[in-house]
Amino acid sequence: xxxxxQSPKYLFRKEGQNVTLxxxxxxxxxxxxxxxxxxxxxxRLIYYxxxxxxxxxxxxxxxxxxxxxxxxxxxxTVTSAQKNPTAFYLCASSQVGEAFFGQGTRLTVV
Amino acid sequence: QKEVEQNxxxxxxxEGAIASLNCTYSDRGSQSFFWYRQYSGKSPELIMSxxxxxxxxxGRFTAQLNKASQYxxxxxxxxxxxxxxxxxxxxxxxNYQLIWGAGTKLIIKP
Lengths: 110, 110
Fold this sequence. Notes:
The complex is a heterodimer.
Chain A: E1 4-7, E2 10-13, E3 19-25, E4 31-37, E5 43-51, E6 54-57, E7 64-66, E8 76-78, E9 87-94, E10 99-101, E11 105-109
Parallel strand pairs in A: 2-11
Antiparallel strand pairs in A: 1-3, 3-8, 4-5, 4-9, 5-6, 7-8, 9-10, 9-11
Chain B: E1 4-5, E2 11-14, E3 19-25, E4 32-38, E5 45-50, E6 54-58, E7 61-66, E8 71-76, E9 85-92, E10 98-100, E11 104-109
Parallel strand pairs in B: 2-11
Antiparallel strand pairs in B: 1-3, 3-8, 4-5, 4-9, 6-7, 7-8, 9-10, 9-11
């Protein structure tokens, strides 16, 4: 089945720790996106990538990093510089038209 | 400056009635418009795409686009309690960037 897979579904991070969220797609889409969603809020763009080996900062990139070494993969690292990382993280991909989402990763700081 | 505006709601509609969700946008060059539904704690799922002026119907859902007025709407006929969710309006602007509204919370009352 074609789609986007995010893992893990739930992730717990200790203070000062870096964690990496995985996003893999087999839709052959060029563009991939990472969004953060806080309770009761809309989607905020963290990073996006239009092609392999290229990516751009979104509105809230501070404290996050990404890589796009393969078309299928767009992992997001939440670094210790992100002071309030507890949120729902969504990965999406698109080609010409609509975007499709993974099931999300819920990150909690413990 | 917000590029996509939605009323945050909540919008309360009796079961069986028509729910009308609205979205305005600022970039006249926008070409592609999308409506997504997001249940609490889940990722957004695509309901409708619309690319040209007029109406597009899919089952109980009708999307309406008016590029002259920079306005896109979603009508849900015969509303069901399962339609209770947050509805996100999105578009691809003249730079092919994916832009999101903040969403409208819809509550269908039995």
